[in-house]
């Protein structure tokens, strides 16, 4: 273990060198950058930089600092050479103009640290703020003792020469080394000096406790992790350390010691890895040296051959002399036989003279780098592409109180960060709008004109930019403001057959026992079981529009409007309406006692079994013609004297004009008119629905209320509740 320790001490001389004088440090101080440098070297560098001579602390009281007791091997090291100081100053990042010493010290001093390669700020007090590196001093002392193999003994500082004896003890309080006799003489028994701490004799005594350089006699008890410096109790209170992470020095000591121990153990446990890496570096160094030597030989040979060739072109030398002798040949056959090769060589020489270039290239271009693997990786990279054109979902897209646009991305499309929605009114070129950075796959557009056709399209965007636009979709806004209402569950006498949902927007009629009991009368008379529902609002003015959908499997469902008073009378009629003269579609009884000029109190359209029945009247001929032109007939609409049937549209729209007393029914998906007729508007009018047999009906929900969590409480009123297009 001793031999191994001595070997380690001898091999660490590089760690003990001063970066300025390149010799083993003496009286090292720690700079703010945590590098150590000799105190005298640092002072000389500052003086050469133009700063005044700093006040240096006295050298430690040791035999090494006393000329008459210093060993020849421990002679004081000379001052650093001026050329090294000049090189250090030139390598620094700042310039230091000369200053007169009478001007006083500058407020801040900058020291050019060679290991850092930058200027280090010393502070206002300069080197006085830099503490001694006592640990490094002790390591240097052990190193010197190991290298000298104990030949330099520590002599007693109080024995008079030439009878000086070797020191056997050292006093940490007196900071001196003593022999046995001198130690007893200066530390008599029973005196305070007898309590001094005695240590091994040494050439450099270290203080028992580090004290603050700014506050005398204040121990350094704290460590600032932010500034990486030791603090005393007074320095800790300074504003410069406010908010910093400060820990006790004992905690910092244990933490740092554990980290260094862990790192040291890791390196020592991986010595095989270090040796392997050293072997690889040495092999690479050998290969590089061989490659350089081979390249040098090839280039030298090429240059030598070129020099030889050029020298042969000189007069009376080489090729020129041979050619002159060849021209003396008079035999044609012999001349031709020999001159062909010479002619080729002369032609090549002339071309080489005209296009002269060095055979050996001094560059290293022939050391080519194999980048085939990198090129393959770059070729296989799939760079991000812009999103493909979205696909509009026409089943979910609709125009009601607001425009609701829904789309999806194709399966092979790259993901989109956000979407851009463009919309414009058809026929209006300068108008239009845009919704930017839509994060989802649906958008709501408001503030639109009524009874207008809007053109919409969508495109996605990601890191690669915007993609292509989707196909344009056309949406027709309602012809009037949308009326928002709910089904009134308090009306109706047939709760056993009629079920209204909790949200009061859906109703279902389930024929029960009463219809079964009336089946025996169905063959002899026209008995119908009718269940009536009305909306919870009554319209007294303006134009209003609403929409609903009827389940295709329903038997018979009537949708329309009627006078509120007449609807209340209808509820008091018997459940079985036996009179065949009653026609709900005409809105009144067909007897001759009624005047033909008065408008009917009801106006309904009948739907059922996947069909819709459009009554024929003088006011509806043009609408039926438009409906046939729209392609809904296809041979499936048989006509009759009383009307015509067509396929049931997905949604049915109803528009009531109270002032004109007209009601119009639309295909809500395309807003094509289906049928128009009169209705009595002399009193409040309510939306009404009639179920004959089994069936189901769903009111169209407002786009603005799709995210509503609760349904508001509704009441029957005669005031108009209108939701206009924003």
Automatic annotation (TrEMBL):
Comp. bias intervals (Basic and acidic residues): 80-89, 582-591
UniProt domain Fibronectin type-III: residue ranges: 386-480
Domain COS span(s) in chain numbering: 327-384
InterPro entries: B30.2/SPRY_sf, ConA-like_dom_sf, COS_domain, E3_ligase_FN3/SPRY, FN3_dom, FN3_sf, Ig-like_fold, Midline-1_COS
Alphabetical list of Gene3D superfamilies matching this protein: 2.60.120.920, 4.10.830.40, Classic Zinc Finger, Immunoglobulins, Zinc/RING finger domain, C3HC4 (zinc finger)
Keyword annotations from UniProtKB, A to Z: Coiled coil, Metal-binding, Zinc, Zinc-finger
One Gene Ontology CC term in the entry: axon cytoplasm
Listed Pfam families: COS (PF18568), zf-B_box (PF00643), zf-C3HC4 (PF00097)
Domain B box-type: 207-249
MF terms in GO: zinc ion binding
Stretches the record annotates as Disordered: 52-104, 578-600, 624-644
PANTHER family tied to this protein: E3 UBIQUITIN-PROTEIN LIGASE TRIM36-RELATED, TRIPARTITE MOTIF-CONTAINING PROTEIN 46
Protein name: Tripartite motif-containing protein 46-like
Organism the protein comes from: Sinocyclocheilus anshuiensis
Organism phylogeny: Eukaryota, Metazoa, Chordata, Craniata, Vertebrata
């Amino acid at each position: 273990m001793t031999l191994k320790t001595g070997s380690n001490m001898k091999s660490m001389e590089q760690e003990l060198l001063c970066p300025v004088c390149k010799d083993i440090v003496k009286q090292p101080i720690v700079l703010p950058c945590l590098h150590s440098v000799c105190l005298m070297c640092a002072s000389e560098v500052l003086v050469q930089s133009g700063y005044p001579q700093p006040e240096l602390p006295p050298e430690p009281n040791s035999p090494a600092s006393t000329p008459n007791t210093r060993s020849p091997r421990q002679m004081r090291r000379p001052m650093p050479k001026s050329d090294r100081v000049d090189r250090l100053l030139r390598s620094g990042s700042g310039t230091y103009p000369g200053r007169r010493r009478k001007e006083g010290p500058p407020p801040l001093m900058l020291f050019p640290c060679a290991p850092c390669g930058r200027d280090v700020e010393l502070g206002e007090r300069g080197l006085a703020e830099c503490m001694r590196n006592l640990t490094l001093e002790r390591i240097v002392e052990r190193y010197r003792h190991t290298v000298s193999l104990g030949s330099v003994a520590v002599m007693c500082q109080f024995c008079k020469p030439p009878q000086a004896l070797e020191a056997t003890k050292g006093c940490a309080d007196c900071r001196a080394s003593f022999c046995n006799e001198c130690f007893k003489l200066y530390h008599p028994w029973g005196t305070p000096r007898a309590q001094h701490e005695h240590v091994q004799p040494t050439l450099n005594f270290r203080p028992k406790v580090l004290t603050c350089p700014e506050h005398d006699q204040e121990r350094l008890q704290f460590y600032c992790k932010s500034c990486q410096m030791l603090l005393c109790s007074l320095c800790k209170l300074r504003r410069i350390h406010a908010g910093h992470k400060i820990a006790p020095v004992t905690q910092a000591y244990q933490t740092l010691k554990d980290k260094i121990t862990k790192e040291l153990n890791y390196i020592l446990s991986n010595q095989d890895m270090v040796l392997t890496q050293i072997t690889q570096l040495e092999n690479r160094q050998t290969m590089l040296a061989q490659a350089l030597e081979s390249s040098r030989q090839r280039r030298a040979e090429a240059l030598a051959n070129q020099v030889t060739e050029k020298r042969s072109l000189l007069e009376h030398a080489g090729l020129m002399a041979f050619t002159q002798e060849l021209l003396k040949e008079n035999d044609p056959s012999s001349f031709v036989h020999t001159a062909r090769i010479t002619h080729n060589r002369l032609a090549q020489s002339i071309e080489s003279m005209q296009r002269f270039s060095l055979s050996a290239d001094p560059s290293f271009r022939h050391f080519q780098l194999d980048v085939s693997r990198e090129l393959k990786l770059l070729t296989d990279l799939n760079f991000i592409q812009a999103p493909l054109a979205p696909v509009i979902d026409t089943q979910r897209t609709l125009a009601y109180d607001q425009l609701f646009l829904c789309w999806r991305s194709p399966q092979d499309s790259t993901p989109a960060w956000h979407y851009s929605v463009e919309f414009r009114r058809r026929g209006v070129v300068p108008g239009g709008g845009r919704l930017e950075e839509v994060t989802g796959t649906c958008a709501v557009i408001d503030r639109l004109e009524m009874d207008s056709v809007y053109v919409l399209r969508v495109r996605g965007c990601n890191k690669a930019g915007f993609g292509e636009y989707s196909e344009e979709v056309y949406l027709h806004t309602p012809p009037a403001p949308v009326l928002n209402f709910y089904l009134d569950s308090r009306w109706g006498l047939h709760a056993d057959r009629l079920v209204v949902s909790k949200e009061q927007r859906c109703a279902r009629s389930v024929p029960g026992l009463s219809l079964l009991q009336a089946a025996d009368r169905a063959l002899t008379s026209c008995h119908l079981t009718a269940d009536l529902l009305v909306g919870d609002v009554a319209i007294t003015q303006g134009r209003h529009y609403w929409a609903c959908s009827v389940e295709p499997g329903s038997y018979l469902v009537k949708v329309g409007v009627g006078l509120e008073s007449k609807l209340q009378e209808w509820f008091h009629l018997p459940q079985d309406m036996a009179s065949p003269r009653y026609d709900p579609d005409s809105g009144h009884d067909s007897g001759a006692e009624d005047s033909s000029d008065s408008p009917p109190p009801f106006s309904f359209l009948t739907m059922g079994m996947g069909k819709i029945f459009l009554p024929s009247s003088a006011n509806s001929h043009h609408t039926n013609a438009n409906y046939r032109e729209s392609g809904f007939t296809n041979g499936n609409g048989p006509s009759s004297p009383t009307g015509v049937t067509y396929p049931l549209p997905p949604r049915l729209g109803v528009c009531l004009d109270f002032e004109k007393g007209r009601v119009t029914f639309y295909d809500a998906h395309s807003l094509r008119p289906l049928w128009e007729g009169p209705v009595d508007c002399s009193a409040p009018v309510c939306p009404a629905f009639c179920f004959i047999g089994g069936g189901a009906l769903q009111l169209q929900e407002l786009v603005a209320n799709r995210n509503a969590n609760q349904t508001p409480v509704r009441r029957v009123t005669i005031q108009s509740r209108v939701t206009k297009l924003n």
